[in-house]
């Protein structure tokens, strides 16, 4: 158990969705990345960033590398294997030709990703040709079928665990839409049939095969040539499956990345629209804060993990308490006791249901009506047939009339009023930017909203308002620092990146920790462009006047009577001692902390820390 | 916090026209006191009711006048009796004069505190203000109110007025109401508080903030637009969830005779090594924190960590402005912050005002990078939106919402609605029915917004505090059901539904919902119950039978061996189930062969074989199955049974080959020819 004492006291109110989102060992995913390493993957290039061409192989590998890095942070229980096919060398348990399973030391083929795997995979391209090599595995006249072999190896890798507790997937990266194109009729037919059968066998065992096709703008990947049958797509699905024939490599990468994740349903809920009309919805946590993993306590001598034993001890008798104790709240000079069941009963308000109350115009949804990250809902026709139809109808009406729904969501531990905001699908260059559905936004109650803007001012006059000229100047400045296409989540969390960079370096016992880039740092260079500086100066002049001086600000002048008095006393007190003399004789330590603070206060120095820190600060200030 | 002790006088209108909402007023006020008893038990409170038959207040005895006003409770430190007093307010018989009541309340505060405690003294008036106040002896009513309000401001008092209107004042005189509203607005202007109008009992319950939280700044410093342009701002929380109170654990170990028992529970943690060889407790100095990195745990001491961790500088910097449409509403991550210009700093206020108004005009928002404190270990990126003040006294400000980082977002793909089959797409009539619903089930008709978050109380907390109060008197009281007023928050307004009956009828006519028959309903319900029950603290709180998990299958019976087998295989609590299931089914099959029952003698056995084969492939356990098949073949050969092998072969129930289960040593060809091979053997 990774119990952190601080964590145990976390309120039971903490977001229930989160625990579903934070992955547990019981619902893991096994993924085999199957990467085509045929010469075609190396010959075909796409224009990438910086005008440099990238091979399809590079694109696939960098997508996987990126996904491994994400995975170790947020889903480290998932297990992966990386497998290349159409290779010169072979390495696999079945000893099949043309298939190479990539792995590193101290790791099974299908296992959780480790620091070493990530590190070595990052530089796979350098060693690939030398150690693994690329070679067409399906050639006329040979009975070898590298695709068949690859699927077989992948399926064997995924033998581990039961499909009931784990999600098993094969992700196939290739740019060859017709793998048996080079063969003659009979051989082609035969190989196609056996390969499809192999894929079907795998699927019958509960393994899903997903295709991540790579194509160039001029030669589109034709799914229906071969792969539609392999991954089991028919009519409608096929239309849905958009091959990523996008203009830009970035878009293609984006699509690959998105397809590499499976959707995880947080829970199923019932949406009660009217009496006798309840539809089924699935909820998804699309946005949740990612935090560094829990701390595990270790024995510093052996580095073995420690188990935490938590015990409840009665303060009066010192006896251990076994059964879950009652709870109490001191009230009216006595302790009012509650059973845990009673607390649950109090919170139980229409459990598991989302109940429609009505609709309001979108303008009623104020910017400050927010408490927690939103939850995404999408209809589910599996349990209640007809759910999707009514959901789509409401979704369209809400978009058309610019309204949102108000509903009561009876989540068991956290029942709350919510706003359901319809989100239309947004696609860009063939990729889905925003999925269609509704976002559930948790609304505050009256006691959750504060009116702090009303505390001030204490004056009788009206609040100062900017005049037209000042607003114009502000607008000019805003235009100068305008970002055209900002995406809400374009920044990586610098603290998290740093955290994992440090961990990775330490895990591999490396001495120097790589620098991480703080993407959230402002664009200092851009802000010092003459045009920006000019606009800023103009705005400053218009609101602050030309006599503006940072230090003699209005706030400072208005220092309150009391604090001025305090300061005067402190300054006087500071004169009571001959500080220089005391410091020279090393007698500062004879003074009390209070006395030391007098000096620090008088010189506007921080007064925090232990006594030693205070003394050293004084000495530093004196230049000794 | 003694220095923040609040001194409050409640001025409650109990006249006949208020009787309809008095029970809500009672609840609201007792809730106020209940929370004070827990969170600020040194606050002082007095209660004045007006509109009563009799008069009982200092002013009427001292100077005369001030009729029909009763001081129900002199100002005192809050206690349990106050709750009792507020729970049974007298029902008055005359229409009260709220201005007289205000004067009585002020008089009480002045007499008790003189001019001390400025800013901590508060009056709270709850009335419907539909009856005219008495004309003053000299001057106009307005002058009189002005004088009182100025006096109030000079004494450092504030007055908060809650005016109950709506359906409770339909037949009231509009002229009188307007006059009263105007008079009350003078008070709120002079003391810079607000007058709140509520029109439903539900919003009355949410109208008064029952718990005052002293505002604390999150940040004081510069909002940096560019290195040249900085604005001094203070940052507060705008919303923060009022949590369910954290209850303490209660120990019943102490004997009842021990009057001094605290009944407190201490939680102790002991850290022991996992290997169990030594059961010794590891002392704190020998412990080191380990951080997970995939399967590895990396030990790092606090000092090491301090040296390398991310340490940003305190400060708030603008990263840029962008169009409001680039930031989606659903990306807001947390509770909301409020940015105001440094109080008293006119130029900062002007700068904030100018930026806010320019942003509003351009429909722009600002992206900020915030480090609230020195030593904070992370940065916050968020969006700043303008808040243009509608009140002349209140300066413009900003709201700030935290945005997600790249790591916080899961970009799942969902099928486009257009890609669904036609049967899932609403037709014109269905779309029309939905349009009607969205337009007619209107919670904000002509500006009168219902369920406004500002006036909506938290039903769970209301319920908790009421239960607490009940339990204080009657320890075994059951949890009260939600009363009608609170039900308005969780259920649709019946009146609104009744008004739109035709809309709902149309909805029912055009949309048809069916439970999917393929899914077993019981298991689905069980799943849902489990979901909702699993978060309940302390576990099994539910008492209904529905929550019982399905009966565990521990043995394969004669009646439905296949089903029993499948149920056993799916019992995931112990891996032994699989082994047991396979073993038992094997035995069952053999028994069925030796004692075939009736007409289709081998039918049942074949079904079992099919189930076993499937199960063994899923579990990748080919051994027991292949073993069995060899025994069956041998048995059939010995007994000369032909029908069974044929039956099995016809259903492809042959050996499990290597391609199906890795552990098998049977090739596909071998498997295919398994039963074929035995055919040439003649029956000997």
Automatic annotation (TrEMBL), chain A:
SMART domains per record: Ku78, SAP
Domain of life here? Eukaryota
Q: Where is the composition biased (Acidic residues)?
A: 1-18
* Compartments, as annotated in UniProt: Nucleus
Region of interest (Disordered), residue spans: 1-23
Q: Which keywords does this chain's UniProt record carry?
A: ATP-binding, DNA damage, DNA recombination, DNA repair, DNA-binding, Helicase, Hydrolase, Nucleotide-binding, Nucleus
Which Pfam families does this entry report, sorted A to Z?
Ku, Ku_C, Ku_N, SAP
Give the matching Gene3D superfamilies. 1.10.1600.10, 2.40.290.10, Ku70, bridge and pillars, SAP domain, von Willebrand factor, type A domain
The family database entries (CDD domains) matched by this protein are listed as: KU70, vWA_ku
Q: Ranges for the SAP domain?
A: 588-622
Protein family (similarity comment): Belongs to the ku70 family.
PANTHER family to which the protein is assigned, alphabetical? KU AUTOANTIGEN DNA HELICASE, X-RAY REPAIR CROSS-COMPLEMENTING PROTEIN 6
Q: What is this protein called?
A: SAP domain-containing protein
State the organism of origin: Gossypium arboreum (Tree cotton)
From TrEMBL, chain B:
Q: Which UniProt keywords apply?
A: ATP-binding, DNA damage, DNA recombination, DNA repair, DNA-binding, Helicase, Hydrolase, Nucleotide-binding, Nucleus
Leader sequence range is: none
Composition skew (Polar residues), residue ranges:
524-543
Instruction: Please state the Enzyme Commission number of this protein.
Output: 3.6.4.12
Please list where the region (Disordered) is annotated: 522-543
SUPFAM superfamilies linked to this entry: C-terminal domain of Ku80 (SSF101420), SPOC domain-like (SSF100939), vWA-like (SSF53300)
Reactions performed catalytically: ATP + H2O = ADP + phosphate + H(+)
Can you say where in the cell this protein is located?
Nucleus
CDD domains for this protein: KU80
Q: Does the keyword Nucleotide-binding apply?
A: yes
Q: Where is the Ku domain?
A: 279-420
- Similarity section: Belongs to the ku80 family.
Function, as annotated: Single-stranded DNA-dependent ATP-dependent helicase.
Please identify the protein, giving its name as recorded.
ATP-dependent DNA helicase 2 subunit KU80
Q: Which organism is it from?
A: Gossypium arboreum
